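Appendix B, example 12.
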Amino acid sequence: MEKSRNKNLTSGPLLKQIIVFSLPLIASGVLQQLFNSCDIAVVGRFVGPEALAAVGSTSSLINLVLNIFMGLSVGANVLIASLEGQRKIKFISSAVHTVILLSFLCGLFLTGIGIVLSEKTLRWIETPEEVLELASVYLKIYFLGFPFILMYNFGAAILRGRGESFKPAAFLIAAGVLNVLMNLVFVICFGLGAAGVGIATTLSNAFSAVCILVALSREKDEYKFSFRKMILDRHHCSVIFKIGMPAGIQGIVFSLSNLVIQGALNTLGPKVMAGSASGVTFEIFAYFIVSAFVQCAVTFSSQNYGAGNIERCRKAYYYCMMLSVGLTVTCSLAFTLFRYPLASLYSSDPETVGYCAERILKVEIVQFLINSYEVTAGALRGLGCSLTPALITIFGSCCLRLLWIATVFPRFHTYESILFVYPVSWTVTGTAMIVAYLVYTKKIFGKR
């Protein structure tokens, strides 16, 4: 049994393991965003600015609803990685089945919430009437896929918890390719517009969920999944919620602040909405690089802390931070240098292109700052500390953004005044998070 467990991350060349673990995550994230960018480009080019604004402006609302339970996938990752690191093999099977059943139930709940509240929330954030109907239709279709989204993410968390990052990445890439192809068919051939994008996304999410379940069902050891064994183990749920709920609450508040920002953007008109939505796609490219190393930090910290490898925990954090900052800076510089040609991919309207390029210049160029709190928070959660990073992010970033929109934006009421909130909030949150990491690790590492 031990020989087959070749994904153990508690020994061996650490830097090489982190690079090998992170590369599939980076590739899948960047390619997935490339596919999503193709979705937006198809809508912008073949339907129009209103449809582009409708699809792009819903991301904050989608993330708000989704993050209610997406944080639990972090708890699932920590649960599996901790059991793996401590060699508590006999508990892994029940943990796997608890995670999958929990993801399905949460997904069903989110689907109901999303469909009921979608149009009301769109009106609350002052979505213009000319894009309201398109955005509402897109959202309701998208929400139908939430059970699949959570089942994929929780299933991927199981595989990453044991040290396997290639399979989830491969499934996500395959689903992304399928999504692009279906978008071309539904939007260009059938003329379904924003609804076609929603249908394609839901079907591709279903595909990735099926792939992850099939992969788990074909495992030969304690990770093997069977529908007949699905349970909700009280202890496993307790661990998942203890680690995951603070992350989920953080995600909710963070998305809520972005939803308020979207509401402020909506008051500036459809072209600002479309340009900003296009610009955000480039930020997400860079964010997926960061996200890959966040997952590395969570997994490597969990396994090694469980195994008692304290120095390896420290090194894993430093390596993840170093690699993530370096790649993020490189990506951001490239986007900034070619911002106008890149913005032109999404729209032929000069104003929309200008707003997109402005966002890239003023936000994307400093996006490396998010590593300071994202990667650090991942390392803390891997060590079992989830509440502290959640509170820091809520107060240092989310509350600051809400305060900014309530005070600074009304005074100037410009696109630039909204964009400047990002580097300010990133700097404040990152500084606080690093201080918290140093204090917490000194406390717990001093005991072991």
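DSSP finds 17 helices and no strands in the chain. Residues 1-6 have pLDDT under 50 and may be disordered.
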